[in-house]
Amino acid sequence: MPKKLAAWLVVLVAGAAILAPSIMAFEPDPLPGDFVLTWLHQHYAIPVLWSLCASGALALLYLFYKR
Asked: Rounded to an integer, what is the distance from CA 32 to the centroid of its chain?
């Protein structure tokens, strides 16, 4: 069971990393846990919790349709 849980957590975090740029385009309201990246005098708000929620929702949707 721990191997499965670890695999799902890796998929969840990888999905959040992949979804973060597309969520940044929508400029959602900041949540606790989000952080600001400064690069070449530009500020980019990285929506960590929004990305994790979207990744979790897509993972649950995948599990639902897999069955």
From this structure: 14
